[in-house]
Write a structure and sequence with these properties.
The complex is a heterodimer of chains A (about 1000) and B (about 375). Chain A is mainly β. Chain A has twelve helices and 65 strands. In chain B, helix 10 crosses helix 11. Chain B is elongated and about 75 Å long. The chains are: A mainly beta (about 1000), B alpha+beta (about 375).
């Protein structure tokens, strides 16, 4: 057998392999796991999201995506775009700053880290002296103001991150001009906010945590105004004209302050507690947006009454008499407003509110009445209910595609029609070669249809199976009910809803026939639904059948969940996929395999007890087969009760570890030294690890026997028209493979179309193969006379596939977790095998036939097996000779859920979950590759803006000659430095000069 | 007896063979057609007839050309006995109830005197604490140390045959580290070790493996660089014919070779694996081919071994084996397995109340079965 494993040294084949196979991880779909920071550049119209694992992702127009990863894998705390530049600065929780830039390279833009920097205090100073709390990129693009815990504001030069020490704004300097009786040294601790004056770049507003706000003149290096807030400060926001600013506070209030040239110490114009009078939670961020009609938009996060709504994650929008508190199902990380970015415009005219919550992105259209949500074209929350399975269908016929889209559009009427407001960059990727659907099954009994053709995974249609069943809590889908007199005016937004009414509703298996539009879904409580696509609403009765997989045998007791109760009488279904048949397995164990043959109108399903075949044309159960082994008690007790308890105990022990870690931290506490605590934690982790290593990990070596648990578990079902009995007549057949290494083959007699309704479908067991190695059978496939896998049902009828060769002899490929075996048909004799596990110690987790086209010649393509192993490797194995072609490491072997979630496409691509909310897309093919290709140009506005800004700056400088000549000389030198070092800057300045002429 | 004598007298031709049969103190002589010896069953009947012991269960043995006393209990060894007998076939018959199995085997020549006296005078034979060691019903491979000639002395290659026993493999492995000689001097490298033997398991009962032995190879594949789980899966995948190369923790029981001429010796001091092992294992893996044959049940009929598709010497061999087994069942030498067969056929229709060993024997013998 070794001869089949040795990589061929045939140079022609080697060359061909290079033309066929190539591994790439191309794009991450879905919503970033654990987002921690949000940034937006109105100039580039790009949004940036940072995560707790140190990733930074940029999004613009659909298809425009960039991703970067900080080496440290530390949490991204803040993201700030440099005004009017393709650059951004990130602040991590280790207090390091990173400068990223978008550079064009080979026709596309790339995000790259340029510099990193950590602020260093003078020797001996406490770390809090340099702990950055606020970052302000100055509009001059040359410097960054860094507010710290100590109250110092450091100035660093860009892009070199050189600290300009003489420009540091110290608390002492700030306090000089403030009357002693109002303030002491402590009022200048911790800079909470830094805001540049919208009109005058020489003025910045400094907000200290204890409520003191100072307007600082950068030219004269002194405070011109100060404002004394009585409450702890959370954030600041300038009004567009710079005449007023607004501050928000810890007690849930916000205050407007006037800035007038005559009065150096202002009293607040207005102090409001929007959700008072009872104690409220902090307002952590606020916007004040002006409009033409004079009524401003006041948008703030938090501020809810502490006692009754303190647990809500809300953002309130107040516009005149309209007020809505958008209520999010997960914590709000940050938000921003998209408003007129033209500096010459008189009003803000906000158009959209963009909110990054912990589990989803929500965009609210502020222009349309009722402030409807906008459906994002990307960043979909795949996990709005936990994903339980996925199914991919390639190359969807246009007709079906359009019907699904039209069904989906009827569901999306409550969304705003506003075009997607974050539209920076240009997508230059070619149109996807075909229409692909990714179907995800969810815990709440829904199936979501995603457009997986391109870079943006986009929700087309959502199907719910809940209506067929009677559940305790009837789903109240109407999320937009808004009681008129309710206060606060909460309104639920977003789709993230991790709570399932009934876990039995969970979808476990999906099968869609793209030619007929038949869809079969199967769930946790043994329910199998067959559906048909209907473009209209309809009310009808779902036919109901029961399949007793134990065949009335006595002695079994099912201790698991009960079967779902069905709704009697007709049910109203909206346009889309409407169920017409429900089969419920008895006992109601989770459905573990599913197959649908749309031409024969048959659906096969299997559980841990056996499998059955249902005729959905005549709505009649054809047969059931029990696969249970007598000694397999586990299968009878219910859904993995022991596994659950193991999980529970694991969880408990982790909790214990965490608790002890927390207490150890507390013991050390008091110092408040973050890095020290971190170090201690790391050390503790190490100790725990070492302790774990001390306990010897042993593995038992034992042959599998028939008495092992779950041998009857049906892993795979397959329909084939092949030679099962004799070599002269082929007939429809159903194949089933179990966990115990048994393959059952049933010969089917399907009446011809004209008598289809009159005669029953008959089935007869024809073969039973017991693999001696007893490993679970994960795949069954019949190869035709040309050694090509049999086509899908109806594929030939739609002229999309050559009809299979029925002359030559057929072969049966059985893939177990350990071996690949080819047998001849109809007389079963073994022909070839590949013992994967015996040779490599890895086991097959997923296997699919994939078609690989050559990137060199259009007319060459071949079928191979794409295999994912338990080590997370992907192997390509040739058909029909079972030779290993190539192997790529893909998923970490510890990432069990990632490996379990992997789904291959028919054309050598695949998806797997890298977090509950994100699919990683990968490609094994040189020909079919979906990856973001996009370009971000510096918009035209740049040069004008730049001239304008630098013009005012120069003017300001000239207006105060001699005041700080030293400073000016230095900045000139800096400029020179920049010119010499950065060709791009040089070119840009040249172009602005030319533009100016 | 008369008939036998007559036959012996009248057939001193080329095609006949003289048989001298001894039961107790009595001798009988007769002759057989060498080319057509017939079946063992017939021969057995003939012996009972000539000794006039029609209802006595006896054990039949013969002395081969080396003088070893070997059993005749099936067609195979009967034919062997007939074909090798030159010129005389000496048959010894013992009552089954007082048979001395230890008399059989090699080197009985040197013990001949004793053996014969034991056979001849069973009554005088001083009974040792009686351990009943059954006759081998069928030849089958057993667990053993193999490839001694080609491996370094510090290593030991053990073949564990799960085949045909009910014993579990019965051992555990763990991660550990061992010291190796590398170009950079001594280095600590991770390794896989045997951590525990299950009492009564195959591993323990063969005595070929011990706790803390380092596992170097599994069926010819080096385990270095593989995780504990990988090695576990490899061993389980090969569990029906598991070949483990170990470096025994106890190096004092190593096989000491007399000459250094054979194989790849001279590497005994080397502690890492010889680079040529994959080649050495070529034949091992080939052998392994035949070990596990899947079973097919057609149309709810009889379970059959799935044959190889391409006609090869192997498949012919297995065919002949099938025939043999058919007959041995008829002989009633495998009555228990016949019983099992009935059960196993029944078990297809799921008689789940009786936890009977049917499918198991099916699987483990890997043999063909009739109803």
């Amino acid at each position: 057998m070794r001869r089949f494993l040795r990589p061929g040294h045939d140079p022609v084949r080697e060359r061909l392999k290079r033309d066929l196979f190539q591994f790439n991880k191309t794009v991450e779909h879905g919503f970033p796991h654990q987002p921690s920071a949000l940034g937006y550049s109105p100039f580039l119209r790009l949004m940036a999201i940072g995560t707790r694992s140190g990733a930074i992702k940029l999004y613009g127009a659909p298809g425009v995506e960039f991703m970067g990863l900080h080496e440290e894998n530390n949490t991204v705390m803040q993201i700030h775009f440099i005004p009017d530049q393709c650059q951004l600065v990130t602040l991590l929780d280790d207090n390091s700053l990173h400068l990223w830039s978008l550079k064009q390279h080979g026709g596309t833009s790339e995000l790259r880290e340029e510099h990193r920097f950590t602020l260093k205090g003078p020797p001996g100073s406490p770390p809090s002296a340099t702990q950055v709390t606020a970052v302000l990129p100055h509009s001059s693009r040359e410097v960054l103001y860094l507010g710290t815990e100590s109250g110092n504001i450091f100035v660093v030069e860009l892009p070199s991150f050189r600290v300009l020490e003489d420009r540091t704004i110290t608390p002492e300097a700030v306090l000089q001009r403030i009357p002693e009786d109002n303030c002491n040294r402590r009022s200048c601790e911790l800079v909470e906010a830094l805001r540049e004056h919208p009109k005058n770049p020489d003025q910045i507003l400094i907000g200290y945590s204890r409520g003191l706000i100072v307007l600082w003149d950068l030219q004269n290096n002194k405070g011109t105004h100060h404002f004394l807030g009585s409450q702890q400060l959370e954030n600041l926001y300038w009004q567009r004209d710079g005449s007023k600013f607004i501050s928000c506070h810890y007690d849930g209030s916000y205050t407007q302050w006037p800035v007038s040239s005559d009065n150096r110490q202002s009293e607040p114009l207005e102090n409001t507690v929007p959700y008072g009078p009872f104690p409220c939670k902090a307002i952590s961020k606020i916007y004040w947006q002006t409009t033409k009609n004079g009524l401003p938009y006041i948008i703030f996060q938090g501020g809810m009454p502490r006692a009754s709504y303190g647990d809500r994650h809300s953002i309130s929008v107040i516009h005149g008499s309209q007020q809505t508190a958008f209520d999010f199902t997960s914590r709000v990380i940050d938000f921003f407003i998209i408003f007129s970015s033209d500096p010459a415009a008189e009003f803000d005219d906000p158009s959209a509110l963009v909110v990054l919550a912990e589990e989803e992105l929500v965009v609210i259209d502020l222009k349309s009445a009722g402030w409807p949500a906008v459906q994002p074209p990307y960043l979909a929350s795949l996990h709005c209910s936990a994903i339980t399975c996925s199914h991919h269908v390639s190359n969807i016929p246009l007709k079906l595609w359009e019907r699904i889209i039209s069904a989906g559009s009827k569901q999306n009427i409550h969304y705003s029609s506003m075009p997607w407001p974050i539209d920076g960059g240009t997508n230059i990727a070619p149109d996807p070669p075909q229409r692909d659907l990714l179907l995800t099954g969810h815990e709440d009994g829904t199936v979501r249809f995603w457009d997986a053709s391109g870079v943006c995974l986009h929700l087309l249609y959502k199907l719910s199976t809940v209506k067929v069943f009677l559940t305790d809590a009837d789903p109240n889908d109407n999320m937009n009910t808004l009681g008129e007199d309710e206060w606060p005016p909460l309104r639920k937004v977003g789709t993230f809803d991790p709570y399932s009414d009934d876990p039995r509703l969970g979808i476990q298996k999906i099968y869609l026939c793209k030619y007929s539009g038949y869809l079969a879904v199967a769930g946790t409580a043994g329910q199998v639904l067959v559906m048909e696509l209907n473009d209209e609403d309809a009310e009808h009765v779902v036919d109901h059948a029961e399949a007793d997989l134990l065949q009335d045998q006595e002695g079994y007791r099912w201790k698991g969940h009960e079967k779902l109760k069905t709704r009697d009488g007709p049910v109203r279904f909206e346009a889309g996929f409407q169920p017409f048949v429900l089969v419920q397995c008895q006992p109601p164990a989770v459905v573990t395999s599913l197959a649908l043959h749309s031409e024969w109108k048959l659906v096969a399903f299997g559980t841990s007890h056996g499998f059955g075949l249902f005729d959905h044309q005549q709505k009649r159960l054809v047969f059931v087969k029990c696969t249970l082994h007598p000694s397999d008690q586990l299968a009878l007790e219910g859904p993995l009760s022991r596994v659950k308890s193991l999980k529970k105990s694991l969880r408990q022990s982790f909790r214990r570890i965490r608790r002890s870690r927390v207490s150890s931290r507390k013991r050390r506490g008091g110092g408040g030294n973050a890095s020290e605590v971190q170090e201690a934690n790391a050390k503790f982790d190490q100790d725990v690890l070492q302790e774990m290593e001390l306990a010897p990990v042993q593995r038992k070596i034992e042959a599998r026997s028939a008495e092992d648990s779950f041998t009857g578990f049906v892993r795979t079902l397959y329909f084939a028209d092949t030679f099962l009995r004799d070599s002269s007549r082929h007939c429809p057949s159903l194949w089933a493979g179990t966990n115990g290494g048994t393959v059952y083959a049933f010969c089917l007699r399907v009446p011809p179309a004209e008598r289809r309704m009159d005669e029953p479908v008959r089935a007869e067991q024809a073969k039973e193969i017991q693999l001696m190695h007893r490993a679970p059978v994960v795949g069954i496939l019949v190869l035709d006379g040309r050694s090509t896998p049999l086509p899908e049902p109806l594929e030939v009828a739609h002229d999309l596939s050559k009809s299979p060769d029925m002359q030559g002899s057929h072969q049966l490929l059985v893939v177990s977790e350990e071996q690949f075996k080819v047998f001849t048909l109809p007389k079963v004799s073994s022909k070839l095998k590949l013992k994967l596990t015996a040779l490599e110690g890895c086991r097959v987790r997923k296997v699919t036939v994939a078609n690989f086209g050559s990137c060199k010649t259009d007319d060459y393509s071949e079928n191979d097996l794409a295999v994912l192993t338990n080590l997370g490797d992907i192997q390509i194995i040739s058909l029909p000779f079972l030779k290993l072609q190539i192997r790529y490491p893909c998923i970490r072997k510890e990432d069990v859920s990632g490996i379990a979630s992997c789904v291959f496409t028919k054309y050598g691509q695949g998806f797997y979950l890298i977090s509950p909310s994100e699919f990683e897309r990968f490609s094994l093919s040189t020909k079919w590759l979906v990856e973001p290709r996009c370009i971000v140009d510096m918009p035209e506005v740049t040069s004008n803006n730049h001239v304008h800004k630098s013009g005012t700056e120069n003017a300001a400088r000239k207006s105060s000659p001699g005041d700080c000549g030293e400073d000016e000389r230095k900045s000139e030198r800096l400029m020179e430095h920049a010119l010499l070092n950065d060709e791009k800057v040089l070119k840009e300045i040249q172009s602005t000069l030319e533009g100016g002429r | 007896m008369n008939r036998a004598q007559r036959a012996a007298a009248g057939s001193r031709g080329l095609g006949t063979m003289e048989v001298k049969s001894k039961f107790g103190a009595e001798f009988r002589r007769f002759s057989l057609e060498r080319s057509k010896p017939g079946k063992f069953e017939e021969f057995y009947g003939l012996l009972q007839h000539v000794h006039k012991i029609p209802n006595v269960d006896v054990l039949v043995g013969y002395t081969d050309i080396h003088g070893d006393l070997l059993p005749i209990n099936n067609d195979d060894n009967y034919h062997k006995a007939v074909s090798t007998a030159n010129p005389l076939l000496r048959i010894f018959i013992q009552r089954k109830e007082d048979a001395d199995y230890s008399a059989f085997g090699t080197d009985t020549m040197t013990r001949k005197k004793n053996v014969l006296s034991n056979v001849l005078r069973p009554d005088n034979h001083k009974k040792k604490p009686h351990i009943v060691i059954s006759m081998p019903q069928d030849f089958r491979p057993v667990s053993s140390i193999i490839d001694v000639d080609i491996l370094p002395e510090t290593h030991r290659r053990v073949r564990l045959y799960k085949y045909g026993t009910d014993k579990p493999l019965g051992f555990y492995i763990r991660d550990g580290s061992s010291v190796r000689v590398t170009p950079h001097g001594l280095e600590k490298v991770p390794g896989i070790f045997i951590s525990r033997l299950v009492p009564g398991g195959l591993a323990q009962s063969t005595g070929l493996l011990a706790v803390n032995d380092e596992v170097l190879e599994v069926n010819g594949i080096e385990v270095s660089g593989k995780s504990l789980d990988q090695v576990t899966d490899m061993m389980i995948a090969n569990s029906r014919n598991l070949i483990i190369t170990v470096r025994p923790a106890n190096q004092r029981n190593n096989v000491v070779r007399n000459s250094r001429t054979s194989g790849s010796s001279g590497q005994s001091t080397e502690s890492s694996l010889p680079s040529s092992t994959p080649n050495i294992l070529g034949n091992l893996l080939q052998e392994e081919e035949s070990d596990e044959e899947d079973i097919i049940i057609e149309d709810n009929g009889e379970p059959q071994q799935i044959p190889k598709a391409a006609p090869s010497s192997e498949s012919i061999e297995s065919l002949s084996q099938i025939e043999l087994l058919h007959e041995s069942t008829q002989n009633g030498f495998l009555p228990s397995s016949e019983m099992n067969l009935n059960h196993s056929a029944g078990s297809i229709s799921m008689e789940y109340e009786v936890p009977e060993p049917g499918p198991k024997s099916l699987e483990e013998d890997g043999t063909i079965i009739t109803l």
